[in-house]
Design a protein that fits this description.
By secondary structure, the chain is mainly α. The chain contains 15 helices and no strands. It has a single domain, classed as Na+/H+ antiporter like fold (Up-down Bundle). The protein starts with 8 loop residues before the first helix and ends in a 5-residue tail after the last helix. This is Bile acid:sodium symporter.
């Protein structure tokens, strides 16, 4: 049923974690325990990301610098600009925390697994997708906090500003485990690739733990009492409009720069997607002390919308006649 309606099963698990936190939030001695468990889960998540990242695949796609710059500009320039404009227009319809979440969503790096998967299905430039998606994740560790701090500080938000403490925590919990994972790849890389199905459970389990902890704190602080249904409906509409505009810009850039069809597909899927797996851990660090549960709601809603829309578009691209360029750039089909 979930496959028929293009509902990501992981989204259902996220909703279950939110429901659990809403009914049975962590309290008392459970709060510090879940806090420490969340920190360890985030570190493990990024360690495994580093262990699985193939340097050979990244090197193979690095030569197409114009395409990579285009993707990164959509992710870290076009998205924040559109998000800022749309967010300001929709601000009267959103709560302050949801508005902060929209800004945060627009500053996040792109996805890795789903961007590559949709590029492959649509017969795009898979090596370039691997390179750009991986670079986006790494750059996001630095650029996301910087962009969020600049935009929110300029807007006068109480959540704005980028402290040295937040930078240190992001480096310690995200970048250091990622680098250690890369360093350990010669010894555990093969094992990580062979057991990617089992490790997916670890990945998703880490995110679910972070979501439960974040929403527990938010529910205790009165999340659902301060978030009307009209604001959630406005957020869903804003997410759909934002995705449509970004996709239109990505397609237009691909044509203006004269990219081939496989490269335009890569630009579309890598540039228009935002990472839930990176976003929730970064939010947990960056907005410590704020209503993290409400702030990550926009990325969770956008995540499901982008999966649904990209699945439809990738399927349409997949049905087009296959040329030699697509076969050469999509190893899974040769």
């Amino acid at each position: 049923m979930t496959s028929r309606f293009n509902i990501d099963p992981f989204v259902l698990r996220l909703l279950a974690a939110i429901a659990l936190a809403s009914l049975f939030p962590a309290h008392g001695v459970g709060v510090p325990i879940f806090g420490w468990a969340t920190n360890l889960a985030i570190a493990l998540l990024f360690f495994l990301h580093g262990a699985r990242l193939s340097r050979e695949a990244v090197v193979a796609g690095m030569s197409h610098w114009r395409l990579h710059l285009s993707i990164l500009s959509v992710t870290f320039v076009v998205f924040p600009v559109l998000g800022l404009v749309l967010g300001l227009l929709a601000a009267p319809l959103l709560t302050p925390d949801l508005y902060t979440g929209v800004v945060f969503l627009c500053c996040l790096p792109g996805t890795v697994q789903s961007a590559i998967a949709f590029t492959s299905i649509a017969r795009g430039n898979v090596p370039a997708a691997i390179c750009s998606a991986s670079a986006s994740t790494l750059l996001g560790v630095f650029l996301t906090p910087l962009l969020v701090g600049l935009i929110l500080a300029g807007a006068g938000s109480a959540a704005g500003g980028l402290s040295l403490d937040a930078i240190g925590k992001i480096m310690l919990q995200l970048l250091v485990p990622f680098v250690l994972g890369q360093a350990a790849r010669p010894w555990i890389g093969g094992w990580a690739v062979r057991n990617k199905r089992a490790l997916k459970v670890v990945d998703q389990g880490s995110i679910l733990l972070v979501v439960y902890t974040a929403f527990s704190n938010a529910v205790t602080a009165g999340l659902w009492q301060h978030t009307p249904l009209s604001a959630l409906a406005s957020l869903a509409g804003l997410s759909a409009i934002l995705l449509a505009l970004v996709m239109a810009v990505a397609l237009g850039m691909g044509r203006i720069f004269g990219f081939s069809a496989p490269d335009r597909i890569t630009l579309l899927f890598c540039g228009s997607k935002k990472s839930l797996s990176s976003g929730i851990p970064i939010a947990n660090i960056l907005f410590a002390g704020h209503a993290v549960g409400a702030i990550v709601l926009p990325i969770m809603i956008f995540h499901q919308i982008q999966l649904f829309v990209c699945a439809l578009i990738a399927g349409r691209y997949a049905r087009r006649p296959e040329g030699p360029a697509s076969r050469a750039l999509n190893p899974s089909r040769t």
